[in-house]
Amino acid sequence: MATNLIVRNVDDDVALALKQRAAAHGRSPEAEHLEILKEALQRPQRRSFADVLASMPNVGEDDDFNVRKN
Questions:
Q1: Mean pLDDT, to the nearest integer, of 14-21?
Q2: Residues 18 and 30 sit within 8 Å (Cβ to Cβ)
Q3: Torsions phi, psi of 5, nearest 5?
Q4: Phi/psi class of residue 3: alpha, beta or left (left: φ > 0; alpha: ψ in -120 to 50)?
Q5: DSSP string, the chain
Q6: Looking at residues 15-43, what average pLDDT do you find?
């Protein structure tokens, strides 16, 4: 079911930027606002740093990463 949203107290410069962006994309300000919300909320979730580290392949030996001292 669709929901109507009302955004109050929008700065004039933000409202103008929305209108300009909408015009550049050939949409109404309301349609542009909806597109901005979709882009912000439906993008893929970011992976945590721990998940990224855990997904790295186990390559090399510990000695490969030791700092050489002269």
A1: 96
A2: no
A3: -115, 140
A4: beta
A5: --------S--HHHHHHHHHHHHHTT--HHHHHHHHHHHHHSSPPPPPHHHHHHTS---S-GGGGSPP--
A6: 94
